Amino acid sequence: MSASKLYVVGLGPGPASMRTPQAEAALEAANDLVGYGPYLARLPDRPGQRRHASDNREELDRAHLALTLAVQGRTVAVCSGGDAGVFAMAAAVFEAVEQGEPAWRTLEIEVIAGVSAMFAAAARLGAPLGGDFCAISLSDNLKPWELVLRRLRAAAEAGFVIAVYNPLSRARPWQLGAAFETLRAALPTKTPVAFCAAIGRPDEAIAITDLEHADPALADMRTLVLIGAPTTKVISRPDAAPWLYTSRSVAERA
Amino acid sequence: MSASKLYVVGLGPGPASMRTPQAEAALEAANDLVGYGPYLARLPDRPGQRRHASDNREELDRAHLALTLAVQGRTVAVCSGGDAGVFAMAAAVFEAVEQGEPAWRTLEIEVIAGVSAMFAAAARLGAPLGGDFCAISLSDNLKPWELVLRRLRAAAEAGFVIAVYNPLSRARPWQLGAAFETLRAALPTKTPVAFCAAIGRPDEAIAITDLEHADPALADMRTLVLIGAPTTKVISRPDAAPWLYTSRSVAERA
Which residues have CB under 8 Å from A48's CB, separation 6+? Predict the structure, then answer.
């Protein structure tokens, strides 16, 4: 049992070229891979390694399974897209530990950071996160919708660039539109907005617009939406998509 | 001239094991490396590759040099610690492009995302960024100090976990203490606070305390300070450092 170990691995946005050697080593060492099916499907098969694929929105069940296998002496890798700590599996694993068996607290758990979707998207756009920024999940499965709106307002009024995770889903198709409405009350209509889907993967798609014209139909569950701050600028280019960047300087007095 | 390319590379927190293959390929392809001296010193020498090391706080000069070399037909890698887009070189490069020669807009510029200091620190602690979060640079070199305080207050009141970059320096040793004072007015005294220095490097050091006892003397310029939200919890462990995690759920009504 002393050899058992639980890794929580950030796989990055998709391709192996955006995954760290540290993450690869953990995947290599694992007896068992636990994760959302489509993430596991991106990884090569390894002889003797078991896979436990599950559906979306089953994070706590997945964490329980991984912890149960680890206390049995298996080396387990819980696989997350992007960075494991950002709206991903690390919080579910530690929530399960806190509420679960005392033995789980004695496990060796190593979280392996990865390239997050928000930073991969920002890199494709230029430098939109050049100033202070925040990340907000729009899902109201785990928090009240009023709190989501309050956080959006607070972030916009304070001048943060906003990375929006989980912008909508089939069960809540109206949320991103409502978020844009709230932001329009707090930010200039010309504030840049970028829709970034499947960054680093073959179906990558980016659309750049502004808050006035931001259309929720441009997003699906795979999309990260970046909302600029008043200091975010568009650099036009001949025959190419513009770059976005947020000035490191803010002249504004508070 | 058509072969020239400018990479802006996120080196990650330090060790090669936390650097992506994409970043390594850019470093390998470059004729010229441009960056802060200590970051360049972490990279292996390559025959025929030129190094342009500069001091801290010379970001715009560094960006100008890199762009000038690139339009001359060189392949250039601007090297940033962590992720290049997070309080690092990407914003300086695009700021220089916006204000500089028209030819710079025709360059091929590729930003390569990396593992940021905040996500590497979070991974070491558990899952402190499990909910909505923000990142704030405490430096008032480029924005008014009143705005820094206003953002800290807004973030705390809205329930974001806060990652504090550039917490203090020799020129502004008092800022982190003032930030803690402001946060104490908005958050419970038992809110977890973590000081994370040199994550992933041999001199890595972590201290976990709470807002009541948070002592600015625990930080220097290399330290990332994480301030929990009201939903951030400490998981105690027998004979080991505690884990921090932020609950994915918020029961609070706005």
Answer: A31
Contact flag B119-A22 (C-beta cutoff 8 Å)? no
Q: Which of B67, B115, B153 to mutate to test the interface with A (most CBs of A within 10 A)?
A: B115
Determine the straight-line distance between the first and last CA of chain A, rounded to whole angstroms. Answer: 56
CA distances from A55 to A62, A78, A118 (A): 9, 14, 23
State whether residue A243 is helix, strand or coil. strand
- The amino acid sitting at B150 is R
For A44, which DSSP code? Answer: P
Contacts of B13 (CB under 8 A, 6+ apart): B81, B82, B115, B117, B120, B199, B200, B201
Distance between alpha carbon A97 and the CA centroid of its chain, in Å? 22
Q: Report the pLDDT value the prediction gives residue A1, as an integer from 0 to 100.
A: 42
Q: How far apart are CA A124 and CA A244, in angstroms?
A: 9
Which residues lie below 8 Å from residue A75, measured CB to CB, with a gap of 6+? A3, A4, A5, A6, A7, A29, A30, A31, A32
Interface of A with B in 13-52 (CB under 8 A): 16-22, 25
Which 8-state DSSP code applies to residue B44? Answer: P
User: Residues B173-184: pLDDT tens digits?
Assistant: 999 999 999 999
The Cα–Cα gap between A136 and B185 comes to: 24
C-beta neighbour count of A112 within 10 angstroms: 28
Distance CA B138, CA A213 (A): 34
Give residue-wise pLDDT tens across range A163-196.
Answer: 999 999 888 899 999 999 999 999 999 999 999 9
